[in-house]
Amino acid sequence: MSTDWRSKWNRRSFLYGLGSSLGAVALSSLLACDNSNSSDSTGGRRGLKQVPMHVPKAKHFIFLTMEGGPSHIDTFDPKPTLDQYHLSKFERSGEQFSAMSSGERYYVKSPFRFRKAGKSGVDMCEPFVHLAEVADEICFYRGCQAQSVNHPTAMYHLNTGNQFGGEPSMGAWWSYGLGTLSDNLPSFVVLPELAFPQGGVANWSNGFLPPRYQGTPLRQSGPPILHMQPPPGVSHYHHRSKLDLLREMNEEHQQKHAFHDELSARIENYELAYRMQMSVPDLLKIDDEPNEVKNLYGIGHKQTDSFGRKCLLARRLVEKGVRFVQLYSSGWDSHDFLERAHGNLIRSIDKPISGLITDLKRRGMLDETLVVWCGEFGRTPDNGIREGGVAYGRDHNPDAMPIWMAGGGVKAGHVIGATDELGEKAVEVVHPLRDLHVTLMYLFGLDDNKLTYFHGGRYKQLSQFGGKVIHKLIA
């Protein structure tokens, strides 16, 4: 080890590392070597490019999150048997539905017709016009089950593996396990709606992982990232000089407070923010894309412009090395007016998502980019009485939820699993949500049992206590 490394460690730091076990001393050595050898031209640390645990296809993750819980029965899992029971009374068993089940309940048939799409003949409701064109790239999974019937806890469960929040999000785990592919961009970027999803920023939190792994949200209106550019009259040269001085002061302070994660993250974030000043503005200029590309995503059309811009930006982000991009579409909580609510939402995402898959494939990026579409749970085959009579909508259902995946090594053009004839619960290839998490990690070469972090006296993982890879989903 170099004398430069030794000069950075005083007696207090050494004793701290020694007291934390021999393993901590070894880790301290590795981190110090990384600190001394990992500087870029601006003086900041490079992002770690870590090696996956087995050779995967997937390198990037685009997570299309439909907040509110889309209905499987009215999107990709038709239930013609419901036509026979439409508006007949129904009594649900099971304690978990008691909060929603006061009063009489009635079966509700789907307001949409279905058709077979692609050579694979997968089922899609008719409002999905453009997605049908890429149906053979998609793997539909009907066997997953969540646990919570409440939006915030269900969102936390989907995003973090824990219903109560405070845990690292999926994007944080991916960043921790695989590192970044770009020195100038965050590894984990979030594209939320104007209003954040239920549960707020905890849905993309770093939890107990070091702060550097938290998701970076890009605002939907106004500047995507506040204070990205220096104030008027401050050149990049002067800005760089100030950051150098600030880094020297922080590093001097850090020597007196060994293993201070928050301070280390603060230093790294300042440096990353400086580098982002050069790369982010051009990256966000999606209006510079050719008209053919913008039309592919539905940009410029009122109903599809907003989500189309998110999908195009997601492609640009992964193309530049962002590891994990999460897009939100909200409003899927259709307890009534199902035809209008789901219909409008489907039309708002249909062309953008089809354009995303098409664009990724023609650029040779689909094989290494996993695209996942789902909400926090599915919907019930019935609904309760509302003022004025029966509401043509559906309640929350964790026992059956619509999920599909494309690219990244999944079994394209297949339907895996099944729900019962009424869509009440999954009955084939049934797996809890934690098994889906484990499977998604596996597609990136990660082993959930090995990707752990010591916190609160034990090693923790995304699945909480382990899960099984759903091999039927993998090509």
What this model shows, in words?
With 475 residues, the chain is α/β, with parallel strands linked by helices. The longest helix has 25 residues, at 338-362. Residues 1-9, 12-48 and 94-101 have low confidence and may be disordered. The strands form seven sheets. It has an eight-stranded mixed β-sheet. A four-stranded antiparallel β-sheet has the order 2-3-13-14, with no helix packed on it. A two-stranded antiparallel ribbon has the order 4-5. The protein has helices spanning 3-7, 11-19, 22-37, 81-85, 151-160, 170-178, 236-255, 261-283, 291-296, 305-319, 338-362, 433-443, and strands spanning 60-66, 89-90, 105-107, 114-117, 122-125, 138-141, 144-145, 188-191, 216-217, 324-329, 369-374, 378-379, 382-386, 389-390, 396-397, 403-406, 414-416, 418-419, 426-428, 431-432, 453-455, 458-460. The protein has one domain (60-224, 284-473): Alkaline Phosphatase, subunit A. It is built from twelve helices and 22 strands.
